[in-house]
């Protein structure tokens, strides 16, 4: 599951100026997109895996940060059509194949405790949602905002591309409506979104979710909760000079 430093394109080079063990907590940097169904599943599995380590005698301490990645940056804010229309046109797949694919991911999401509703999903451009995540990060609410955005998009059919809707979602996690509206209308956090995307390219990330563990390991895809628990325990043991069974 863990990929050694020299097998993760660009990660070691991009982080070579950061000494290991700078902080007590393991750093997990997650590149994802609000509109990526596997990213929400991966997020939930990561949370479940970390929760499973909480009762360990020497429980890993972990710090998770979310980073921006746009799967389809050319998508209009108001896409005319449903998710089937988008995927069949964007990927060139027959609608029947897309339906089967969405049924599959809905089942995987259910196993992770998520209730996807692709029939009401409103496909949209996600750059403003990413800007909102950075605004929330500045206020110490990034995790709450990421959860709210993904739930709104995949389970509630809310439009996460429009500023008015994003302001309301931000208020639901305790952020100031006026401040968020001003930040989104001005594009204040767009440079931070672009910096995340530049970092993803430097790391060689071309698909999400992608997890960078302590700047040393790269984990691709929505791995099961048990895998994330194993990763956290192994890296924590390595940080403390303890050998673990594979």
From TrEMBL:
<protein>
    <submittedName>
        <fullName>DsbA family dithiol-disulfide isomerase</fullName>
    </submittedName>
</protein>
<dbReference type="InterPro" id="IPR036249">
    <property type="entry name" value="Thioredoxin-like_sf"/>
</dbReference>
<dbReference type="InterPro" id="IPR001853">
    <property type="entry name" value="DSBA-like_thioredoxin_dom"/>
</dbReference>
<dbReference type="Pfam" id="PF01323">
    <property type="entry name" value="DSBA"/>
</dbReference>
<feature type="domain" description="DSBA-like thioredoxin">
    <location>
        <begin position="28"/>
        <end position="230"/>
    </location>
</feature>
<keyword id="KW-0413">Isomerase</keyword>
<dbReference type="GO" id="GO:0016853">
    <property type="term" value="F:isomerase activity"/>
</dbReference>
